[in-house]
Write a structure and sequence with these properties.
With 261 residues, the protein is of the alpha/beta class. It is built from eight helices and eleven strands. Strands 1, 4, 5, 6, 7, 8, 9, 10 and 11 form a nine-stranded mixed β-sheet that branches.
């Protein structure tokens, strides 16, 4: 009987601790549509919706308006020093691996150089040096470009991805260093034809994840990962909840890759 009551007490304490943690998780989000962005006065997007679905199914408290949405450099710095926090949506790259615990992947993305279709043809990264480029400062795509030996002397380094999207659209640059899915979303959102653009060079393939502070309890990481995995489960031939979330933002649009060989 004593062992039975001890087991019940431990179970209740474990459940209580998880619930308290879920109610007090600070969530930081970098501005990166369609994964996290401001919509009608409240943070929204793919990863925000995924977190909402996971928390809802676990009966955890969730309020999107309490998410801290800001520039990537700002929220990254805050997430690093804030215990039990989550950071969305983060590229899982080697230099960040030991800084966080990881839940995902949320999406497979490509860090690329994109141009208007049939305007640029390159066989090697050095061939791009003769063109005018744009990128967003300190993003994973720009970092991948530099790591591969790309020269930034001919690159307009911008504050936000949207500036780069518009510069490419209006012909102010020849090509754009960016992440493929956010670029596709911007085209879809503004009614542009995705087929007017193509990837001329793939810098790197990576994944978007939810980054959790190192202090986050392992049981909470497991709950979040299991919740994401369940959202991805298909019911027979029907799309999963995860598929429905993505379809809302991309409408099936895909950015093609130029065959330079």
């Amino acid at each position: 009987m004593y062992k039975y009551y001890c087991f019940i007490l431990i179970t209740l304490l474990s459940f209580s601790t998880t619930t308290i943690e879920a109610k007090n998780i600070p969530i930081f989000a970098g501005k990166n549509a369609p994964f996290n962005f401001m919509h009608k006065g409240s943070p929204s997007g793919i990863t925000v919706k995924i977190l909402e679905e996971i928390f809802k199914k676990e009966n955890f408290y969730f309020n999107a308006k309490e998410i801290e949405l800001n520039s990537w450099s700002s929220v990254f710095s805050q997430a690093i020093v804030t215990p039990n926090s989550l950071l969305i949506t983060a590229s899982r790259i080697p230099e960040r691996e030991e800084l966080f615990q990881w839940v995902g992947p949320i999406a497979n993305v490509r860090l690329v150089i994109v141009a208007k279709k049939n305007t640029i043809s390159i066989k090697d990264l050095k061939d791009i040096q003769k063109f005018d480029l744009a990128s967003s400062k300190n993003t994973s795509a720009e970092r991948a470009y530099i790591d591969l030996g790309g020269d930034v002397s001919n690159v307009s380094r911008l504050s936000t991805p949207k500036q780069g999207y518009r510069m490419l659209e209006y012909g102010r640059v020849d090509a754009l260093i960016c992440t493929d899915l956010p670029f596709v979303y911007d085209l879809v959102k503004h009614g542009k034809n995705v087929n007017d653009y193509e990837i001329v060079y793939i810098l790197k393939k990576t994944d978007y994840y939810i980054a959790a502070h190192k202090s986050m309890p392992k049981n909470m990481i497991k709950i979040l990962q299991n919740g994401l995995d369940k959202l991805k489960e298909k019911r027979g031939d029907n799309p999963s909840t995860y598929d429905f979330i993505f379809a809302k933002y991309f409408k099936g649009a895909i950015l093609s890759v130029k065959n330079n060989k």
